[in-house]
Amino acid sequence: MTNRTLQGRILTESGWMDGTIKLAENGRIAAIDARLASGRAVERYILPGFIDLHVHGGGGVDIMEGGESFQQVARTHARFGTTSLLATTMTAPPDEIAGVLSALGEHCQRRQSGAARVLGVHLEGPYINPGKLGAQPDDACRAAMAQIDYYRSLAPLALITLAPEVPGHLEVIAKLAAEGIKVQMGHTLGSYEDGVAALEQGASGFTHLFNAMTGLHHREPGMVGAALAHAEYAELIPDLLHVHPGAIRGALRAIPRLYCVTDSTAAAGMPDGQYKLGSHTVTKCLGGVRLADGTLAGSTLTMDQALRNLVKIGLPLADASHRLSLYPADYLGQSERGRLAVGAWADVVVMDPELNLQQVYVEGEEIGLVDA
Fold first, then answer.
1. I want to staple 212 with a disulfide (CB 3.0 to 4.6 A). Which of 14, 47, 134, 197 is the partner?
2. Catalytic residue among 263, 304, 330, 347
């Protein structure tokens, strides 16, 4: 790997700068030589690489398939600007989850060339409400610390989604938070009061806000109301199918560090057709992924398109970038990712004025892009 120097309008921690950024041999940012952005036309934008905390699949394969699926998923999303991600599991029987985590544990220790860095696992289920499965298989169960500790011995669990109203889950939330594991509320029939109680016990976010949770009513605020009234962080799918742009804008005003995820499936980066999502078969068509009954089942979204969607509904580019890079990095405590700064990992995306990807670097390695 040789040193590389990139030139353009750079989103630094101090704001927009015009100048150059140098990527070092060790995969870090060696230097930024820049000055305040001028009024001249932008030839290209240089942004922090995207960080996706909710990835089920991509490139035709599903995380729950195990084997080589992890590498294929990480390579696929890197080609769309995702430089690090959380591999996200589906609700499944315990032995199946354990098998996937065992394979993921080894993969999290190293990064394959041409692929995004897998920072750990997002365990989405099985600790959810069986009455709010969404596209999750019907294998929900109550959380038990002994089982979670076993799963943690197999792979680094960075984030767990659970339903706080399930008996015993508030106590589990408190224990997980004390041990530094992020807990999000999702796939829940919980009330506003359940959400507030979980936040008081140490829960710190909400999984795909608005989707698979009790909605907002002015006399029963629900889980959405708890998020809008109290959350510092929450994740949201900005494919403009899962959540109406007006609801997205409302959440942006209420939740200071709302961040965006893809909730992507095996169908991401693939043509229309049938794909696996855990034990389900889902169909990609008309820009979405659905079960046979029409239920939305994850997405086909990629993070570069998420950026364009946020800008399309009115966010300034810097704000949109923060919600795809800086905020998810900070949520996980990844202080050397999600920002362009000397010494940080050289996770970088370069985009043209229309926000089309031109180059992607993961830890200083240039990634080949998708075919035009």
1. 134
2. 263
